Amino acid sequence: MAKPLMAKATAVWLVDNTTISFKQIADFVGMHELEIQGIADGEVAVGVKGFDPVANNQLTQDEIDKAQGNPLHKLKLKFNPAAAGEEKRRGPRYTPLSKRQDRPNSILWLVKFHPELSDGQIAKLVGTTKPTIQSIRERTHWNIANMQPIDPVALGLCKQSELDAAVQKAAAKKAAEGGVMSDDERRKLVSTEQSLEMDAEPKIPSAIEGLETFTLGGGLNDDEDRKQEDVLDADSFFNLPAGGDDEDDDEDSRF
Questions:
Q1: DSSP 53-102
Q2: Does 116 have pLDDT greater than 60?
Q3: Which residues in 150-177 are b (16+ Cβ under 10 Å) and which e?
């Protein structure tokens, strides 16, 4: 059942100005009966000014009279035709002024680490426009040189659950298209909880990258071993001339 605006203040007014039972008031404003009794005793809602539900178009006097005459009667919120068919406002999320300067950095983070997210999803997450997202994707933004990717959740621009939901939606769309994803792409398309539970993939250290097929001997045949021994022979390697020792002896005999 719909609840009135300013429920506690409405309860204060009903306690002070009517003889409606605590149970009826509690059911109407969505509070516990003991809280209503605490209001009557002056222990709860101290200093709260009463909010007149009749003057503010939430209750009719007839409804109050019925409730006062019948302890079993449940108060009904007055129908407001102005609120009928009211829908949630659509469009970019509102971002406080103090956080708007952080939006480009968060967009850069989303574009870099979750390129599968559409411009519409990013706009909904951080409250921005598609031209801004496009300029950051194409690196034509006027401040791109000074921008750093920062997680929008850490900046308080969106909730982790909202980001995970957007990523999972992108994953479902990717799977429906039947595209083949790499391991890195697959990790990006899962929620944070699922990614943290995954086992780390073994990676080759950068120091030995490209040497996966290198072997330390054992794979050469006899001819190749013989050729290698010939190359490693000192005389053939330095091409020392024959009789070199005699020349050295002659030079020593001069002294």
A1: TTTTTS--HHHHHHHHH-TTPPP-PPP-GGGTT--PPPSSPP--GGGGGG
A2: yes
A3: bebbebebbeeebbbebbeebbeebeee
Token pair for 226 = 């013989």
Count CA atoms closer than 13 A to 73's CA, side-chain side.
14
**For the chain, counts of helices (H) and of strands (E):** 14, 0
Measure the CA–CA gap between 167 and 187, rounded to whole angstroms: 10
pLDDT for residue 55 is more than 90: no
pTM of the model: 0.41
> Which positions ≥6 away from 121 have C-beta within 8 Å?
166, 169, 170
Largest CA distance in the chain: 141
Q: How far apart are CA 211 and CA 220, in angstroms?
A: 18
Q: Could you tell me which residues come within 8 angstroms of residue 35 by beta carbon, excluding any fewer than 6 positions away?
A: 11, 26, 44
On the 0-12 / 13-18 / 19+ scale of CB atoms within 10 A, 198 is exposed
Q: Which two tokens stand for residue 254?
A: 């001069």
